[in-house]
Amino acid sequence: MSRLSSKPVGVVIGVDGGGTRSVAAAFDETGRFLARETLEESLNSNSVGLDSARKTLSILVRRLLARAGVEDYRILAIGSSALNRDGNATELEWLCGGEFSAEKCILFSDAKAALVGASRGRAG
Questions:
Q1: Are 53 and 78 in contact (CB under 8 A)?
Q2: Rounded to an integer, what distance in angstroms lies between the CA atom of residue 97 and that of residue 34?
Q3: 106: which strand partners?
Q4: Of 1, 117, 121, 122, whose CB has the highest number of CB atoms within 10 Å?
Q5: Residue 9: what pLDDT?
Q6: What is the crossing angle of helices 50-68 and 89-96, to 10°?
Q7: Rounded to whole angstroms, how far apart are CA atoms 85 and 113?
Q8: Distance in angstroms between the alpha carbons of the first and the last residue of the chain
């Protein structure tokens, strides 16, 4: 079964990990917006290093969860400017390991996130 399904899944977090700033938003299982958080820090591990990218992701998600008033999430989807393709298991572990469960994370390029967002998930 896909990690993304039509069944209610709890809180979903989307992260736009850009080269100059990072933005995260949380939604409930109905798609209702819960909260947004922005950091003027990059998640691009190619330019800031892996430790800095991990720290930024950690701060961003913790602040977002607090702002949304929730303690946990079902899916953490990260669009990263460091990638030009979907992230693999090793990259997921590098970025999410230790703080976030790699089983809950999806990692892909920020370009893919923009295209999916612009088409609203429809073919096109």
A1: no
A2: 25
A3: 77
A4: 117
A5: 54
A6: 70
A7: 11
A8: 24
**For the purposes of burial, counting CB atoms within 10 Å of the CB of 119, is it exposed (0-12), middle (13-18) or buried (19 or more)?**
exposed
List the pLDDT tens digit at each of the 124 positions of the chain. 344 444 445 899 999 888 889 999 999 988 899 999 999 998 888 888 888 888 999 999 999 999 999 988 999 988 887 777 777 777 778 888 778 876 788 888 777 776 676 776 666 5
Residue 59 CA, chain-centre distance (Å), reads 13
- Both tokens of 87, joined, read 């992230």
Q: Is 107 left (phi over 0), alpha (psi -120 to 50) or beta?
A: beta
